[in-house]
Amino acid sequence: MRSYAVAEKVSAEEQILCASLLPMVESLVEQVLLRWPSLKADELLNAGRFAAVAAAKEYRAERGPVEPYAFAALRREIHSAARAQLATGEHASVAPDPWPLADIEVDEGMPRSAAMETDAPVVGGPSRDRAALVASLEIRAVHLLADDLLRDHQPEQDDQEDQQRLERSIAILRRAARSLLEPKPAYFRVRYEERRSTNEVIEALVLSEPELRRLSLRVATELARALKGPERPSLR
Amino acid sequence: MVGGFNVHHDAVQPVTAPTDAQRALAASLVDEALQAYQRTVPRRALRDVREFMIDELLCTSYGRAKLARLLDSCAHDSGTQDTNPDIDATDETTGHT
Asked: From CA A134, how far away is CA A224, in angstroms rounded?
């Protein structure tokens, strides 16, 4: 079993970082317990704390704020612990390993998208603010979906209809990527198919980080358009 | 800055339990964002991504900030509309909320 004792090897700065992540660990565990109330909270919390220590040790300031960077890793470890507890083969909804949200933040300077102009029912808030947030979530979603769809899948993970959808979705994404102008296909390859880290993508494509962010947004917009299909409004 | 380790931990705020309104808003926003993909993408992938995105909105300070801004603007909007029936016309001309 993993131990939290590694904390004794953690520097003072890393301990501060780690402590700052613990509220997020507790929130994530609460979410897991809402979905699977029978699980043991202590084991989930330990897994989350261990992941917080690891994230604090691996974090580098040039990656931006620590919280978006650590979120996916903490969640993955907590869900992995949940799956170990379930131990029944039930799928515990372990999410893919995406880039942090900060890397694809599109709230600022994002073109007014078609999502903001659709006649979709708008409830719960002023339509423009809500539509802007939904538009950024659509981009977030397509990154996560592409990450999920293009990773290695176990055949038994999906039922027959989902397997057909998976094959069709992968074909759509690859066809869409091939139809783009360089460097978008290269970005698609190294980012989604080779699953390289942000720094590796920057190095491979010889881009600055702002250039990478813009390229990432453009590719995601194209992938979203393709995945939605011809009848759906595009993001641009 | 300590030994080249420029820590951004001050951006992380304590996360209290989300309210029912925040939970409902997060779910509805994510569902709206994923709606366009429901015909093509495997349902399992949609479910996983949905849960991930809801968790990110509810369990991180930046996600909660987005929800709070929207809830605040909703409350402000309804309060303003109570006293200023011309607000919609203003929005049309300025393009701002």
From this structure: 13
- Which residue among B8, B32, B55 sits closest to A64, beta carbon to beta carbon? B8
Angle among Cα A127, B33, A70 to the nearest 5 degrees reads 110
ipTM over 0.85: no
Q: How many CB atoms sit inside 10 A of residue A53's CB?
A: 22
B72 touches chain A (CB under 8 A): no
Query: Nearest residue on chain B to A168, judged by CA atoms?
Result: B40
Mutation to test the B interface, candidates A69, A97, A148, A236, most B Cβ within 10 Å: A148
A93/B40 touch (CB, cutoff 8 Å), yes or no = no
Residues 6+ apart with CB under 8 A from A168: B40
Question: Cβ contact (<8 Å) for A134 and B66?
Answer: no
From first to last of its 236 residues, chain A has per-residue pLDDT tens of 444 445 457 788 888 889 999 999 999 999 999 888 888 899 999 999 999 999 888 888 777 788 888 898 899 999 999 988 887 544 444 443 344 443 434 433 333 333 333 333 444 456 788 888 898 898 889 988 988 888 876 666 667 888 888 888 899 999 998 898 888 999 999 888 888 877 788 888 888 888 888 888 889 989 998 988 765 444 54
Angle at A45 between CA A43 and CA A51, to 5 degrees: 105
